[in-house]
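Students often ask what a holo structure prediction actually looks like on paper. The answer is less mysterious than it sounds. You provide the chain, you provide the ligand, and the output is a string of discrete structure tokens encoding the 3D arrangement of the protein together with 0O2.
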Amino acid sequence: MGLLNEFSEDYVNMENIAKWFSKGEGYMKLMTEYRCAMMEVETKLNVLNAEFSLQYDRNPFEQIETRLKNPISIIEKMCRKNIDISLENMEKEIFDIAGIRVVCSFKEDIYMLADMLTAQDDISLIERKDYIEFPKKNGYRSLHLILDVPIFLSNCKKYMKVEVQFRTIAMDFWASLEHKLKYKKEISNAEEISARLKNCADTLAVMDNEMQEIRHEIDLAGEL
Ligand code: 0O2
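The corresponding structure tokens follow.
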């Protein structure tokens, strides 16, 4: 299924399903649990950042954002993947309801943070997609992790899935602009813009590598 035009009949149907689905008490409870899981992972990342800041006088990441996927995006994804709409299936099959985006200055900090996070003994790594090593055809670069994270409720411990996207500032800048193209309805020169965006992605990747090299040289010079 391609992008749904917001005036199409399919979109209106999905909007209605999403409205009905997200009103239930079970949905709201689940969303609260996802929110708690995001807070857990966000705290873990903030702890790593604070520790680095104290020990090495630098921050591995510059920015962290959390978001819950909205009901219509959830329903759209379930339809696209031919999943029957139910809370149970949503929790079992959709892994990016709780999302965290971590924006780093340098590529190597992305891998360092991802390794440190997944090494923590209460976290399990469910899936890892490395679109930095293997960029998408359009030029998209990011490291995506799906984590299983425990949350401690009043009477039980429950594991929740959280998606963490790691990007450099340059990759994030690119993805924000490309995202705009994806959701614009009528663009006559979309192909040309895609090609220009792909060029930008390649140029930014070279720049990311060069900035990292320069940082190393500055660090080395400081040690002499
Ligand atoms: P939003 O608004 O972030 O929720 P799939 O099964 O492959 O269809 P999956 O496995 O979730 O879905 O895909 P993937 O590749 O892990 O990517 C999911 C998210 O990564 C997207 O979320 C985007 O945030 C981001 N992303 C992936 N590819 C691109 C891309 O080409 N351009 C940009 N700008 N972002 C991308 P959603 O669900 O699209 O939206």
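The beta strands are 61-68, 98-104, 124-130, 143-152, 157-168.
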